[in-house]
Amino acid sequence: MAHLHDDKIKFLEEKANAIRQSLITELVAAGSGHTAGPLGMADIFTAFYFHILNHDPKNPLWEERDRLILSNGHIVPIRYAAMAHAGYFPIEELNTLRKFGSRLQGHPERTRMLSMESTSGPLGSGLGQAAGIAYGARMDGKKFRTYCLLSDGEHDTGNLWESVMFAGKNKLSNLTAVIDRNNIQINGMTEDVMPLEPLADKYRAFNWHVIETGGHDFEQFVSAIEEAKAIFEKPTVIIAHTIPGKGIKEIEFDYLWHGKPPKPEEAKKFLAELRTLGGKIKSEHE
Amino acid sequence: MLNPNQKLKENIFSPDVEQAPTRDGYGKGVLEAGEKDERVVVLCADLAESTRSHWFAEKFPKRYIELGVAEQNLATVASGLASYGKIPFIASYATFSPGRNNEQIRTTIALNDVPVKVCGMHAGVSVGPDGATHQALEDIALMRVQPNMIVVVPCDAEEARKATYVAAFNDKPTYLRFAREKTPLITTKDSPFEIGRANVLWESESPDVAIIACGSIMHNALMAAEQLALDKINVMVLNNHTIKPMDMEAVVDAAKKAGAVVTVEEHQVMGGMGSAVAEVLAQECPVPIEFVGVQNRYGQSGEPNELIKEYGIDTNAIITAVKKVKERK
Q: Which of B160, B182, B185, B187 is nearest to B304 (CA)?
């Protein structure tokens, strides 16, 4: 099992913090969008773009690249922020999010930016696409891996379970799904709206290898990704327990932050919290 | 008279005219495409034989993907395969695909602009005994409103074979519509076929009415043309197989020449091929139009011929529409 050394962990934590700051700025500029989910996935996107993915931001369509399919398209602002920091496009472009003429659509569109890999937003259809890519790649003996990020709420859809069944049947071991298990959806807690538990058992019953892990611990999460690579004959799902709104104490766990952006004065406070690591250090910024 | 340039079958009005269902044309066309290019894959949702996908499955088992009764997944897995670099054909009954999975086709295929070929089988009331649940009458409407989507409705099994083969290599999301029942073969191997280019199958020197038709109901339009000629009513019959992008030039030309139009399709009149023709003609050449098609009803069980008559798309209904529109000129 590959372990991250301390310097790498520190590097990833700092990147995630910078990406969260860009996210807050980006959402304020947009004036609409989602806050809680993207913040909760900041660490996982950082892990993907700065450690896990075999990719080349300067050659985004490199044939052998790992594919990252985002099924729950509404959290795309955090993907945009991570990709900008990784060098796919200028960080300033983040301020065009959701604006007329921008490549950064409210929900991702592959035709406007091919490095998005897929078009998503309507829930439940990303895993099928990821499974299609993984299936095609295996037909051709390709070595790259396909990752699919899923929300927990989208497990309400039938399409997703059709895809879970398909990947299990075909033993797509080159496919790893990651579930953002933050327990919230628009109408409240997932277990109130439409209970998903026992989620891990459900996947096991569909012939998947299941790993449960924290979604904010880089070492744990990267270990889970490495474990998945060593599993043959089965696709792997990583149920990543995340905290919605992670990084800004005031909004953590609050489902009311699912679908709204911070107001400018809130953003100022949030950014200060991120810059000072929650008051632990001083910031030279306002 | 039949247009000699179209190199049509010579015996199309004879009772022993050769017949085949257009779904056979799909089965043959996708097999040929698969022989030509190994990127071609066929995805099936538990309907291998009735969609004629089993011919491909027998020849290319490794490129045949069975998904079970899961049409939403049929669309999304195909989208992934296409974005990776394959040329996926997805075949099911049109009521299920593009019916049930319409949103997945919209988001992951059409908006995503990947070259998945959606093949809708068992279109129209001529499906027969299965009844309304399995008789797609709204699929053209669903597909033609999707930007990026090409929509083709072949008129016989031979044209269906060509359309399927050509669609494999057009690099666009494409909807192809097929019927279950045997219908007469009209075209031959040598008949011209190009997506986006309508063909005049029956011509008259000075037509009174232009019949613009698509799909396997085409034979009824030609039968009507022949019978009308005996009554000294001259028509032309345009095989408008590509609903999108429509051959506007051919449609406008037909309307200009004849001054009146009858559209014929085995589909709801609302939103179908006739509506698309009317959109073009209202702008470019407003002439009286009669629409032969299903009038805001669902189908039902019955024999194909009974249903074609009941729903007003038989030869007599076309003749009546031609006479009516001629009076409106």
A: B182
- Whether residue B124 contacts residue B215, with contact meaning beta carbons closer than 8 Å, is answered with yes
User: Is the ipTM, as predicted for this complex, more than 0.85?
Assistant: yes
Supply A20's token pair: 């969260």
| CB pairs < 8 Å spanning A and B | 107
Residue A264 belongs to a domain with what CATH number?
A: 3.40.50.970
- Min Cα–Cα distance to chain A from B66, Å: 9
pLDDT at residue A283 above 80? no
pLDDT confidence band for A258 (50 / 70 / 90): confident
CATH code (residue B272): 3.40.50.920
Domains of chain B: total: 2
Same-domain status, B8 and B23: no
Q: Does A110 touch chain B (CB under 8 A)?
A: yes
- pLDDT recorded at residue A2: 58
Domain count, chain A: 1
Q: How far apart are CA A128 and CA A157, in angstroms?
A: 12
CB A119 within 8 A of CB A108: yes
B28 and B160 in a single domain? The answer is yes
Q: What does the pLDDT read at residue A285?
A: 61
For residue A286, pLDDT over 60 is answered with no
The answer to whether B108 contacts chain A (CB < 8 Å) is: yes
Where does a domain end: B184, B216, B236? B184
Domain that includes residue A161, residue range: 6-275
Instruction: For residue A281, tell me if it sits in a domain.
Output: no
Question: Per residue in B26-60, pLDDT tens?
Answer: 999 999 999 999 999 999 999 999 999 999 999 99
Tell me which of B18, B71, B266, B279 is the catalytic residue. Answer: B71
CB contact under 8 A, A130 and B80: yes
B159 belongs to the catalytic site: no
User: Which of the residues B43, B46, B76 would you substitute to probe the A interface, choosing the one with the greatest number of A C-beta atoms within 10 Å?
Assistant: B76
Q: Does residue A285 sit within a domain?
A: no
Q: Are B68 and B46 in contact (CB under 8 A)?
A: yes
Cβ–Cβ < 8 Å for A26, A81: yes
Residue in A111, A136, A166 closest to B73 by CB = A166
Query: Does the pLDDT value for residue B278 go beyond 90?
Result: yes
Contact A120 B107 (CB under 8 A): yes
Q: Could you list the residue range(s) of the whole structural domain that residue B267 is in?
A: 4-16+192-327
Q: Say yes or no: A173 contacts chain B, CB-CB below 8 A.
A: no
